[in-house]
Write a structure and sequence with these properties.
Layout lengths: L8 E5 L4 H12 L3 E6 L2 H11 L6 E5 L5 H15 L4 E4 L14 H29 L3 E6 L12 H20 L5 E7 L3 E2 L1 H9 L2 H10 L1 E2 H13 L4 E3 L4 H20 L8
Parallel strand pairs: 1-2, 1-4, 2-3, 4-5, 5-6, 6-9, 7-8
The structure holds nicotinamide-adenine-dinucleotide.
Length: 268
């Protein structure tokens, strides 16, 4: 369990914007060495400039999470600059909502490639060295509340995020007894460029609803740090509509079990 952050090192994918950038700022303020990876050079440059106002112990890399070899090169660079990695945030993600039949084959595959295989690549590249270093470490996989409850028509996106919750649960089992832990971040609505673009497309009433639900990326950054400190596995970002959805999912599943295997029936 990680208790000390000062001087420790974190790598955040999709770290040049939104949630990843919120996490990067929080880590930098706690004295960590921060490396952000992203595919957008302009965002990287801008984010790096802002992070340098907090610390000099930061650098950015253009890396696509679907490219495992490129991630190996990032791992080598981090080792040579800061030594062993302590925190890996597999945060990069792309959108891909819509009905199952409406999403093209290419889009299905690319969404899964970034949102699910991206974190697998991160884990395969960085975890062996994290374990070998013997230092306390933590992996945070950014899923979504769409990976906890199947609301709306989120098909490709939601399926990738459900898979990431599953991957994180199995990784938690694998890591038992090691100094490395894992959490899965399940935000519902966070005020980032993705949500900004969505607000532009919807009617004023829906926009108002989104604004009421939205949490800031800076708050999510603090929630992530606190979850690492307390070794909290599921990281939720609010407890309002999400609580109702979680209750509904659990109730629906338990009701199905009850119908099929009524309590007490095994005694009859
Ligand atoms: N904003 C929300 O409401 C919300 C809710 C639930 C989950 N999420 C998840 O949070 C994560 C961050 O989203 P955000 O809202 O901050 O979005 P964002 O667009 O602000 O940031 C995502 C960053 O990831 C980068 N990226 C995309 N594909 C990449 C790739 N292949 N390799 C490396 N970087 C890549 C983008 O360039 C971008 O800078 C995503 O995984 C997203 O699914 C966001």
């Amino acid at each position: 369990m990680m208790q000390e952050f000062n001087g420790k090192t974190a790598f955040i994918t999709g770290g040049a914007s939104g949630i990843g950038f919120g996490i990067a700022k929080t880590f930098a303020r706690r004295g960590m060495n921060v490396v952000i990876g992203d595919v957008q050079d302009d965002r990287l440059k801008h984010a790096e400039g802002l992070l340098k106002e907090i610390t000099n112990n930061i650098f950015s890399v253009n890396v696509d999470v679907t490219d495992r070899e490129a991630l190996h090169a990032v791992s080598d660079k981090i080792k040579s600059v800061y030594g062993p990695l302590n925190v890996l945030c597999n945060n990069a993600g792309r959108t891909g909502g819509g009905k199952v039949l409406d999403i093209s084959e290419d889009r299905w595959r690319h969404v899964e490639e970034v949102n699910f295989w991206g974190p697998i690549n991160g884990i395969k590249v960085f975890l062996p060295d994290m374990l070998e270093s013997g230092e306390s470490g933590h992996i945070v996989n950014t899923s979504s509340f769409s990976g906890i409850h199947g609301h709306g028509n989120q098909s490709a996106y939601g399926a990738s995020k459900f898979a990431l919750v599953g991957l994180s649960e199995f990784l938690r089992n694998d890591l038992e007894g090691t100094p490395v832990s894992v959490s899965v971040l399940c935000p519902h609505v966070v005020d980032t460029p993705v949500i900004g673009a969505l607000k532009e497309r919807v009617n004023p009433k829906v926009r108002e609803m989104i604004e009421a639900m939205a949490v800031s990326a800076d708050v999510v950054g603090q929630q992530v740090l606190s979850a690492i400190e307390n070794d909290e596995f599921y990281i939720f970002c609010d407890g309002t509509d999400t609580r109702k959805m979680l209750e509904k999912r659990c109730d629906t599943m338990l009701a199905a079990m009850e119908r099929q295997f009524p309590r007490g029936s095994e005694d009859e």
